[in-house]
Give the backbone structure.
Amino acid sequence: MAAQAEEVDRLPPLPAGETPLVRAEGLTVHFPVRGGLWRRVRGYVRAVDNVSFRVRRGTTVGLVGESGSGKTTIGHCLVKLLRPNSGSIRYNGSEIGSLSKRAFFPYRKRIQMIFQDPFNSLNPRMSLAKILAEPLEIHFPRMSVQQRRDRAAELLEMVGLEADHLPRYPHEFSGGQRQRIGIARALAVEPDFIVCDEPVSALDVSVQAGIVNLLQDLQQELGLTYLFIAHDLAVVEHISDEVLVMKDGVIVEQAGSEEIYRNPGHPYTIKLLRAVPSL
Amino acid sequence: MLRYILRELLRRRLGAVCLIILAVLYAATILSQFLAPYLPTDQDLKHSYHPPTRIVLKDWRPHVQVYERVDPSAARYGPVEGKTVPLRFFVSGEKYRFLGLFPTKTHLFGVDEPHRVYLLGSDATGRDVFSRLLYGAQVSLSIGFIGILVTMSLGFIVGSAAGYFGRYVDFAAMRLVEFVIAIPSLYLLIALRGALAEYFDPEQMYLLIVLILSLIGWAGAARIIRGMALSLRERPFVLAAEVMGQSSGRILMRHFLPNLASYLLVAATLSIPVYILAEASLSFLGLGIQEPGTSWGLMLKQAQELKVFTLGLWWLLTPGAAIFVTVITFNMLGDVLRDIVDPRHQMTED
């Protein structure tokens, strides 16, 4: 079979009149490769190449692919840690990909991110109270100190920790607990959409299920929408409604979650599925 | 964090010793007006190059040996057998403000006029070396602190901004740093001193020296901080702050500064001696603190006459010893601090 198979898109068309919460079209990110004495641009790495997808409100879209396939780059574009070279990102129908930093600020409250590495995603010099108060100070400047504290305590309880953990520091917690703190921080500003960048791949298998279940519970409770990035199809299968499979900066297949497992359409997807260890 | 460092410091013998020495030095500096029996400008031409006076016990009370000149043509003194004057405590002397607040005349010790007590001898004009050492410490020991305060702030602002913003900011900042570092520092010191001197009164020379030293010193700190900021910038907690919309200034203050604090502390401790030595060299060259002010470097300059060595006037070299002790103590303290905040060490603590 040819290595360069066509993209397989087997997602049903959107119902008429529905605007997806997030829609990316023709998203392209090139990183310049420099070399030589004058550090001239010698070429480009096409980290993300002409990628289009949509995320429907209240659903979870899994984004799978091997490392280096451009998954995280897409995530970084959505939260504006990176500016795409071309293509558009629409949030709730309005273009956000080309907004300036200042104009994007209101969307920072709506779009949040959970990071892969729970040991590095929390500032080791800040107590939980400070970590959780930081987003509140930025987006709810009118809150009093007491209100912030109450909200931080509430957030901790939402993610399964206790309010009296507030004065403690991140190093006193395990990896799974730290990831819960990261989730609480993302939830602080009451976002609609959360980019989960491999939130469980740095954790023990026994802890992974707990975090995935927490994310699912929070989704139901708060009506959240997720883009769930992972390299492990097994985790994605559990949480996603739809799955995008990425390889070398291109989406090779997108389909409903069950569909993709029952009947993978692209040779790369089949390869990925075979790589999932079965018990 | 600070409490942890202090606890670890006191747990190590070398760290505790250094802290105690520095505490004594700085306490003496703060209390110098009270501890010094005379003003640093107090001359007594009849007692030039007087050797340190012996303290003897008589009737269980301390007395000061009286000396007389044995050779009127040279500065040679001999003790007058059996003649002593009592050393008195809490005597009244020159007026000053205790800790800069309360006006008082009380000094810790002294003897009745016209006798004089010279714990560390006297210089060419009969000024008390001990008093001058204490007053000189006010300059020599504070210059390092004020100097690093300015350099570390400048170094942090330039270095962390260069590392965090990258691109053109980084390029401009680093070329500036290289420019400053490329100029031989002693030459730059002298040139700046010459260029800026006309805008300062002689009394403000202290200020000028701090300014000059800081203008030279920030570059090295900025370069190292930039390197650390480059790696901090990629840490997910900084990305998280960006995702939540934190402003760049606050990211630098809240996320960069606390994570660079242990480095800054070590670097600051290790660079205090540089300032002390630079002040000493400047004053030694006659470009630093001017009479009637006093500093250890200036005192050393006055001790460079051949006479000091041929006549063995060792007490005039005590400012050198003071500089030596201070510099070595700060360096050792810096080494101990570096051991404490070493990242490998911290990993085990995590």
